[in-house]
Specification:
The complex is a heterodimer. Chain A is about 30% helix and about 30% strand. Chain A is an alpha/beta fold. Chain A folds into 2 domains: about 1-30; about 35-135. Chain A has an 8-stranded mixed sheet with strand order 7-1-4-3-2-6-5-8, with no helix packed on it. The longest helix of chain A is centred in the first third of the chain and has 29 residues, at about 1-30. Chain B has one domain: Tgt2/MlaC (Nuclear Transport Factor 2, Chain: A, Roll). Chain B has 5 helices and 6 strands. In chain B, strands 1, 2, 3, 4, 5 and 6 form a 6-stranded antiparallel sheet that branches. In chain B, a hairpin with a 2-residue loop joins β3 (about 120-130) and β4 (about 135-145). Mean pLDDT of chain B is about 80; it is low at about 1-15. Classes of the chains: A alpha/beta, B alpha+beta. The interface of A and B includes residues 128, 131, 134 and 145 of A.
């Protein structure tokens, strides 16, 4: 009888432990470990390459939210990124959202910079002033092609 | 059935209005760009270009909105006189900086892509500019306040407003509005 009680307690403890691990895994995976109330806002990017659900949203270097989801707007083929930000954060309507990289090849994150408007973004509203992820490879490619053109122009002056 | 036709009619009206405003914004941008390119074509040097292009740009770019957005939240603490001074200096800085990038006699080839309407009263026109053998992806952001005005230019994914906002924000945090104005004065006074 005593052994059964002990086994039950150990079993319960193990089940609770596993449940806690599963819960934490899901929370960390979706990046929703934000303390306090939150709300959702959207931002429209021409290119959201490298960003994923759970990516950090920073303002002045402070984590103020996470990327909740990314979907494509079929009308203009742009990326709509849903951000979950702390409800204590009031963002003016002309705030900007930029996709930045930690270091040169690090993770992508969304950087918010507040604007000067007297009106504020409501939950569910959209940030339209955005800066997409800068495509380093295409920039390097352009530099290479640009130099070819310059050499050609130097060789063949008008 | 009646409500469905009403919904369809209102959608058609909204879509029609959207297309009309987009066309208007596109027409406005094309006219402005052609005008500036023609002036650039006839100018002898960049300083002459900056002077001759200024009246045109003052009518096509909303420098007040640009300066306000570039400064960010600190703008609310600017006095009316400081706002005016900062706007004038910012306009001079932008016109001078971009005039210096033009070479007289070189005409850019501009390809306009379909406009995007991110929000009512806002239009983004992506373009591809071929200038002196290099290609640039440039997005013109326009807003319809009293008339269509350019409010931001995004070159190769980098926004003009965002670039200046980072700089002005740190200036403002150091010394408020006078620090921003003095930084602008310093930039304008520095020869190109």
């Amino acid at each position: 009888m005593k052994n059964t009680k002990l086994e039950l307690s150990v079993g319960l403890f193990v089940v609770l432990g596993i449940a806690a691990i599963i819960y934490l895994t899901i929370q960390v995976g979706t990046g929703s470990m934000l303390s306090g109330d939150t709300y959702l806002i959207e931002s429209r990017f021409a290119n959201a390459g490298g960003l994923h659900s759970g990516s950090t949203v920073l303002l002045a270097g402070v984590t103020v939210g996470r990327v909740e989801g990314i979907r494509m707007e079929s009308s203009d083929y742009s990326a709509i990124v849903t951000l979950r930000v702390l409800s204590t954060l009031r963002l003016p309507t002309d705030s900007m959202a930029s996709i930045k990289t930690t270091g040169l090849i690090g993770d992508k994150f969304v950087s918010l910079s507040p604007g000067a408007d007297d009106t504020y973004l409501e939950p569910g509203s959209r940030i339209t002033l955005t800066e997409s992820a800068v495509d380093l490879e295409s920039l390097i490619g352009k530099m290479a092609f640009g130099s070819v053109e310059k050499e050609k122009a130097q060789q063949d002056p008008k | 059935m009646r409500s469905l036709s009403l919904i369809l009619a209102s959608f058609a009206l909204a879509h029609g209005h959207l297309s009309a405003s987009t066309l208007e914004a596109e027409k406005f941008l094309k006219k402005a760009v052609t005008e500036v390119a023609q002036i650039a074509d006839h100018s002898q040097n960049s300083s002459a270009l900056a002077a001759s292009v200024r009246p045109v740009l003052m009518n096509v770019i909303s420098f007040e909105l640009m300066t306000r957005r570039a400064v960010g939240p600190g703008w609310r603490e600017f006095t009316e006189a400081q706002k005016k001074e900062a706007t004038d200096l910012f306009a001079t800085l932008i016109i001078r900086t971009y005039s210096s990038k033009f070479t007289p006699g070189e005409f850019p080839e501009i390809t306009y892509k379909p406009a995007i309407v991110p929000a009512p009263g806002r239009v983004e026109i992506p373009t591809r500019i071929l200038y002196r053998g290099s290609q640039y992806e440039v997005i013109y952001r326009q807003e319809d306040s009293v008339a269509w005005r350019i409010t931001d230019v995004v070159i190769e994914g980098v926004s003009l407003i965002a670039t200046y906002r980072t700089q002005f924000d740190s200036q403002f945090k150091q010394g408020g509005a006078p620090a921003v104005i003095s930084a602008l004065k310093k930039s304008v006074a520095t020869p190109q």
